[in-house]
Each structure stands twice: as C-alpha cells, then as structure tokens.
Design brief:
CATH class: Alpha Beta
Helix content: 10-25%
Radius of gyration: 17 Å
Strand content: 25-35%
Oligomer: single chain
Order of helices and strands: EHEHEEEEEHEHEHEEEHEE
Number of strands: 14
Largest sheet: 6 strands, mixed
Distance between the termini: 7 Å
Number of helices: 6
CATH architecture: 4-Layer Sandwich
Structural class: alpha+beta
CATH superfamily: Endonuclease/exonuclease/phosphatase
Number of domains: 1
Amino acid sequence: MKIATFNINGIKARLPRLKEWLEETRPSVACLQEIKSQDDGFPAGEFEAIGYQAIWHGQKSFNGVAMLVDAKASFTGPVEVRRGLGIDGPNDGEGEQARYLEADVNGVRVVCIYLPNGNPHPGPKFDYKLAWMERLRERMAEIWAEEVPCAVVGDFNVIPHDDDVWSPKAMASDALMQPESRAAYSRLLADGWTDAMRTLNPRGGVWTYWDYQAGAWQRDHGFRIDHLLLSPELADRLEAVGVDKDHRGREKASDHAPVWVQLRN
C-alpha cells in the first residue's frame, strides 16, 4: 500500500500536473492539501476517469483537503470518518477552516491535514497554529485508543530539525521553525507516532517544498514540511519513503513535491 501526500496549491490550476503524477506513480491513496476549491467545484469526474474515487472538504479560495483512492487497484474506500477538528479560525466569526479529513481505506485509517502556517509570528495566526496542533494531538490520541492502523499525513507547516532546511538562519524567524512549533510536533512523536521520512533518512537533507521566489527551486533552497506519521501497526510495515522531486520542476508545478510511504501488505 502506497500512501502519498501532495500540497497541490490550487487543484484547478494544477489539474494536468496532478493527473500526470497520479497516472505515472499510481499511489494507493493520495492526500491533497490547498485544493482551494469549494465543494461543488471539485473536479471529481476528472479523477474517476483515471480510476480514482475521491472525497473532499473544500473552502472558497483557501485551504481545502481531499483524498483520492485507487479504485482500479481494488482498494476499498475512502469511507469518511470525520471532517474538521471543531476549532474555529483565528478571525472572529470566521468559523472552521477546511483543513482536516479522515477516512478508512482497506482497513487503514488515513488522516489528511493542512496545518495552519502560523505567520506572522507572534500573533493570533501563530496562536491558532499551536491550538490546532494541540487539538490534532487530542484527535490522534482518540484514534490511537481505537487501535486501528493509522497514517496521519499532509502539510504540517513545521520544519522539525535544522537539517530539514537548506539554511536554518534564513528561516529562523518563521513560524515553521519556532521552538513552540517544533515542540508541538515532537509531542506527537513522543506519543508513539513514527515520522516515516526521518526514520529512513536520519541525517535529514530531504526537502519537500521550494518557494517560487528568489530562485529557490533552481538553487535547491528547500525544506521539509510535508510529513507522514505512522501508528505502531503501520510503522512495523514501513518499507520505503520518497519524494517525487522531479514533479516540482515541471511546468506550472506546485511549490511542493509529492511525498509518499510504501507499506508492506
């Protein structure tokens, strides 16, 4: 079973690239973030045409998450379990942002998240990021208590270690690298979840994001913020992880590259 996460940065703008990646790499489950589409505008038919069943949680112009499952490979699901964490956005009257989607696929619980960025720091957006992370931790503990194999994947907007970024100094003031952000991420791992990429690449140096500005892609000035966390049941099945880096260099690409984990059956 291959589970992937991909911050697509606008599903309509990147649809040709997204379908290209799906057909070339054929993940069992693809979790998408920043679809930037309302529910009624989600292009589900485009994915059905290439053998993927979809569920999604959209929002106008911002955020939004989705999950695609390879029906051609006879994977069952996605059977939605939950959408949203019940935590309002940082602005009064804003309501909940579309950042969380949870479903069962072939006996595995898959959670797709788009964690708040938190900039500017300090401020209400950073406070919201930390509150969201704490609520995520609570939900992950609830899933843990169910004793179901689980993968929590997505854009966490956290750079966990200095060797997860091309220049710690360049990102030192960013919300992605603040001690509070890192500590909240570390607490998830301390609860027993496994960072799949870190486990198989303990020396770091693996990037999943390159900004559009300042020639970051051409200079390989990237960092790792897209993560795959596994429950013990899935960590025991961990076979391989990777970044489909070449897709970041294609025309009209997202600023993120797809990241995936391969699990033994």
